[in-house]
Write a structure and sequence with these properties.
Blueprint lengths: L3 H8 L4 H8 L3 H18 L9 H13 L3 E2 L3 E5 L7 E5 L2 E5 L6 E6 L4 E7 L8 E7 L2 E6 L4 E5 L5 E5 L13 E5 L2 E6 L3 E6 L5 E6 L2 H4 L5 E6 L3 E6 L6 E4 L5 E3 L7 E9 L2 E6 L3 E7 L4 E8 L13 E5 L2 E6 L2 E6 L5 E5 L12 E6 L3 E8 L2 H7 L3 E9 L16
Antiparallel strand pairs: 1-29, 2-29, 3-4, 4-5, 5-6, 7-8, 8-9, 9-10, 11-12, 12-13, 13-14, 15-16, 16-17, 17-18, 19-20, 20-21, 21-22, 23-24, 24-25, 25-26, 27-28, 28-29
Helix pairs in contact: 1-3, 3-4
Length: 409
């Protein structure tokens, strides 16, 4: 009889289907194969956030790889435009969003159930208005019109912390940005300064003043993101990504001047940062402390035809990178650049620049939110925005819809 060491050595050569059959031979083999399910899960996804056996988790990951999913009911709603950031995350396996009901009232809404968990009234915390926000986990970070950063717990509605600048100045929402990374909050607004705040102490950690030359580039910022050692932003005019080192504040372009990033298409995951271009390229950079080096440059989507530039979207979940453009949704490994799967015609290609795509996932279901609307039409005619919600379930064992396996890039 073979000992467990020899059996494990033999199991390492089995493909997925053979490992499934070996798993059903006896109780001992069932126990031994569990570690292989775990290793194969973690080789694809950094962490398995859902519950259950490793075998069940691997089945879900295999559904992702093979494009097996079930379409859940799609629904629409209309809302008024009051604040450009409608923060969107997963909570208890359900999408949850912080939606501005009015300039002073921000309810926490479970999207699918249309159920309001609680309501945050800004006037109760002496906040006149907010100009930006970011949602990390269960903490909602808001940038007020006086330059304060206020942190709320969306489960209780309590104010956790306030970070106040040395001098309070009124700022507009046009060029204001806020981004949370690790234990830091990065803000930018009208005074052409980046401010880095320490979440633990609540104090201002660093202020980076931009030179006169770079100010011209910062007439407007389209997108702001950050890694541990760099602040990365995309100017509204040139759309060429620029990187600012925190320790030694120097600015350099990440790509040449011919590269134009898409709207709101920059995300980070750990030390990695991905940017989607208007022509369908995905550039992945890695923070190496001293530099933000380019690791992969992938032609993920076909270039637009006749000058059309469909709006794209990027979203990162652990080491998975979700990229949407031209109606295709592709999932890649941000570390290796390999393509995990592709979902054809997942979302409509839309050329309206006032359209915004957003994604969130818990590893089992993928939720997409499409915001359609024009702020100018709202300001003039009070025309509401249309919200469309789409859900794909990858833990479905019946009536599965299969997409062809995608080749590795």
């Amino acid at each position: 009889m073979l000992n467990n060491l020899c059996i494990n050595s033999l199991f390492s050569f089995l493909d997925d289907h053979s490992l499934y059959r070996a798993n059903q031979v006896c109780q001992n083999w069932h126990t031994l194969t569990d570690q292989f399910w775990k290793s194969r899960c973690l080789s694809c996804l950094d962490e398995a956030p859902y519950e259950g056996s490793w075998k069940k988790r691997f089945k879900i990951i295999r559904n992702w790889k093979e494009g097996r999913y079930k379409d859940c009911p799609t629904f629409h709603t209309t809302k008024e435009f009051l604040h450009i950031n409608h923060d969107f995350i997963i909570d208890n396996h359900q999408p949850i969003e912080v939606y501005p009901l009015s300039k002073q009232s921000y309810p926490i809404i479970y999207t699918v159930k249309s159920k309001t968990a609680l309501n945050i009234h800004l006037k109760d915390f002496n906040i006149t208005s907010i100009v930006g926000s970011d949602l990390q986990g269960h903490t909602w970070f808001v940038l007020t019109s006086l330059g304060e950063i206020v942190c709320f717990d969306i489960r209780t509605g309590q104010c956790l912390k306030r970070m106040e600048p040395e001098e309070k100045v009124y700022i507009s929402s046009i060029y204001s940005k806020i981004k949370v990374i690790n234990q830091e909050v990065v803000t930018y607004y009208d005074d052409h300064q980046f401010k880095i705040w320490d979440i633990g102490t609540g104090g201002l950690k660093q202020t980076i003043r931009i030179s006169e030359f770079v100010k011209d580039l910062l007439d407007g910022i389209c997108t702001l993101d950050a890694t541990s050692n760099f602040i990365v932003y995309i100017p509204d005019k040139s759309r060429t990504p620029l990187a600012l080192q925190k320790k030694d504040p120097t600015i350099k372009p990440l790509m040449d001047s011919t590269f134009r990033a898409d709207f709101h298409c920059m995300v980070h995951s750990g030390p990695y940062l991905a940017i989607l271009s208007q022509t369908g390229q995905i550039c992945i950079f890695k923070d190496t402390e001293k530099d933000l080096s380019l690791t992969h440059c992938l032609t993920a989507f076909d270039p637009p035809l006749r000058g059309d530039e469909p709006i794209g979207a990027l979203y990162a979940h652990q080491n998975w990178l979700f990229a949407n453009k031209n109606g295709e949704l592709k999932i890649l490994d941000i570390k290796t650049g390999n393509q995990l799967c592709i979902i054809q015609h997942a979302l409509p290609p839309i050329t309206n620049y006032d359209t915004k795509f957003e994604f969130c996932t818990n590893g089992i279901k993928l939720f997409a939110r499409i915001i359609l609307g024009d702020p100018i039409l709202y300001q003039k005619y009070k025309q509401p925005f249309t919200y469309k919600y789409i859900t794909w379930n990858f833990d479905n064992r019946q009536s599965q819809k299969k997409q062809p396996r995608a080749p590795v890039l």
